[in-house]
Amino acid sequence: MITGAQGVRQTRSKTTYEVPQQQQQQSFEWGRTSQRTSHGKPRRGSVMGGTMTTAGADVDMRESYSTYLERSSAADVMTDALPDIDLYDHDNPLAVTQYVNDIYQYWYKVEPDTRVSETYMLIQGDINYKMRAILIDWLVEVHLKFKLMPETLFLTTNLIDRFLELKTVTRRNLQLVGVTAMLVASKYEEIWAPEVRDFVYISDRAYTRQQILEMEKQMLNTLGFHLTVPTPYCFLNRFFKAAGGDRQFQLYASYAVECALPEYGMLKYSGSTLAAAGVYIAIRGLQTGSWNHTMEAHTRLSESEVYPCACDMAELMRKAPTATLTAVYKKYSSEKFMKIATLPVPHDLRL
User: Which of 3, 132, 182, 238 has the highest Cβ tally under 10 A?
Assistant: First the structure.
């Protein structure tokens, strides 16, 4: 499907994946994952919030933080044991502590409208869930090489799934959908986003600049320019704060959640549930505490509700070292990420 450009920047390596098809014996390879050509600087920190308009969004069935406090008080639960996780950020305008609970209430409200069906791949005739996994695995490498923000990777995955749920795509154009989704996500999340020519190069010139721009217009119009969506990363930031996790804790939970990104079967869980499961695995794996009232209040999930997702996620983590697609595992096995992928997975997290 995609061929390499011979003699172009031979000092840079090319990553190739091949998957045999049962019906048609074809293979396809995806291009370089080397550093982008432009000299952009990655943004520091993260930005939370934004606005999104949805028509007729149903309120999420899980109760809000304030409702949880009221119910706990009525049930004689010690609500004073629930700490103010924003206590040290009240003077930080970027933390928007006076609005943060309302923001997350809104995220929970609109989350169902931004999810895709766990069976959406049935409408696709030329691609399947394995090809989706290969695409996202490759984009994890591209994301790392371009030194993009974590938000960009999660938004990219969301855009791909939402687009594929609405439009049928040929296997030849699947990678075009992937690089275009990352281009759009980069423009939305990054201060210095990669340029179109960077994506032309990273895909080994399989697509022209004009093809990427045409796909960008098609994707944005298909999605109604609806880009402000709650991804697992939005919820991870809040749950990290509730759990009081350090950098190792955050990397461990992030690794768990990213292991779920290429897995089509994990679409049955919402982004907030995936984030909660990642934090739950980190709590169990690093033995930093328990799933207490604070975690229940902010995740709106009891331990019994988060446990099935955590078990499925833990199983993906166990298989990661020997899996066919290893981009996430290699990423988190590096010194930059504290070799977090080499830590043991809680052995008792099994269904």
Answer: 182
